[in-house]
Design a protein that fits this description.
The chain has about 200 residues and is an alpha+beta fold. It contains four helices and ten strands, in the order ααβββββββααβββ. Strand 5 and strand 6 form a beta hairpin. The longest helix is centred in the first third of the chain and has 15 residues. It comes from Dreissena polymorpha. Keywords: Signal. Pfam families: E1_DerP2_DerF2 (PF02221).
């Protein structure tokens, strides 16, 4: 996963543990008409899930503002709820300033076909006009390891080479319903691509 996007998302996600039902409820409600879910499944509780599969590729171009040199996630397998450890080396070629526009496409496999999950209440396949504004309320909760390398979970993110040692983000609730997902995330700045990630995730 592109480190810039991952950092933005995980910083934001650390403050969302109080509302874990949002994504689960949205995905489940979307699945019912799509998959004609039986009534007995409506009470299923998503807990004790593991990340069974994870693959990613950089869908950016040579002119993207961020170059990724290395990335690792641990432990293996990841378990939700539980810690997600991230380590990464990446280069930001140009200072990333507001507004950073994020476009997120989220697909869930239903009966063998990936179906796009629509955007409802900023959850699903959404466009975020200013990711920086989403981070503003959480600056006081930014992990020390990020602040140590000059990233304080806010914009701007200075042009520099970054080496992020293993950093723990606590996923305090099982925010992702089980299943197979295809996620494409693209961040742009003033029309120029900052970073892009295309990933497949399996949670069970």
């Amino acid at each position: 996963m592109t480190p810039t996007f991952l950092i933005l998302v995980l910083c934001f996600a650390t403050t969302q543990g109080r509302r874990p039902q949002g994504l689960r409820k949205h995905v489940h409600e979307f699945e019912i008409p799509q998959a004609q879910t039986k009534q007995k499944n409506s009470t299923k509780i998503w807990s004790g899930l593991n990340l069974k599969g994870f693959s990613w590729k950089d869908c950016g171009t040579s002119s993207s503002l961020v170059n990724i040199q290395s990335l690792s996630l641990s432990p293996d397998p990841l378990a939700f709820p539980g810690p997600v450890n991230v380590a990464a080396e990446f280069v930001v070629k140009q200072s990333l300033v507001a507004p950073l526009k994020g476009q997120l496409k989220v697909y869930k496999k239903i009966f063998g076909t990936y179906i796009e999950i629509p955007c409802v209440d900023n959850v699903g396949s959404c466009t975020y006009d200013d990711l920086c504004s989403k981070l503003a309320p959480i600056q006081g909760q930014c992990p020390d390891s990020l602040k140590k390398i000059g990233i304080d979970c806010s914009c701007p993110i200075a042009a520099n080479s970054y080496n992020l040692g293993k950093t723990e983000f606590d996923v305090s609730a099982s925010v992702i319903p089980g299943g197979d997902y295809h996620i494409i995330a693209d961040i742009t700045m003033n029309g120029a691509q900052a970073t892009c990630i295309d990933m497949y995730i399996s949670v069970a």
